[in-house]
Q: What sequence folds into this?
């Protein structure tokens, strides 16, 4: 590739950003304004103070030309950026894993407690029926089954709506 050819890859040293070439005041233009003797000093100061340049890159590091300029201005900055990006990625992965483990543990505890409550309710149902309180035992057993089915359906609907 020849030096005048450009690519669409922002990491390529030959990449030229089309936006910065037309859409914003470039530092060279500001320099010519500052050097112009016909413009009042107060106006020059306002122009310099109001100059701002914002760029959003598709990657975490600046594109080729900007990376070179940054590296020349502050040697080692790109390596530091890579280190920061890598540590941030590791931290995010660690937090996602921790969050996933917490959700799993919470779900497991909920299932264990639901099983224990159902076991107590069914044991109480069997006991009530065995001592002759058939109506009370049947009501308790039916209510337990309805509660379990309702909780299962609510959890299933919540999972479907979440997806």
A:
């Amino acid at each position: 590739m020849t030096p005048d050819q450009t690519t669409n890859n922002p990491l390529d040293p030959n990449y030229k950003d089309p936006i910065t070439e037309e859409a914003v005041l470039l530092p060279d233009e500001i320099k010519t304004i500052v050097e112009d003797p016909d413009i009042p000093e107060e106006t020059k100061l306002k122009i310099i103070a109001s100059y701002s340049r914002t760029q959003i890159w598709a990657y975490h590091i600046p594109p080729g030309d900007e990376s070179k300029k940054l590296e020349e201005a502050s040697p080692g900055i790109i390596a530091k950026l890579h280190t920061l990006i890598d540590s941030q990625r590791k931290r995010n992965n660690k937090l996602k894993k921790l969050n996933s483990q917490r959700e799993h543990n919470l779900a497991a505890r909920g299932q264990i407690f639901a099983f224990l409550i159902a076991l107590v309710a069914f044991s109480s149902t069997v006991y009530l029926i065995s001592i002759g309180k058939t109506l009370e035992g049947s009501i308790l057993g039916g209510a337990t089954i309805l509660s379990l089915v309702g909780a299962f359906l609510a959890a299933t609907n919540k999972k479907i709506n979440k997806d």
Summary: Residues 104-162 form one domain. The longest helix spans residues 77-130. The two ends are 47 Å apart (CA to CA).
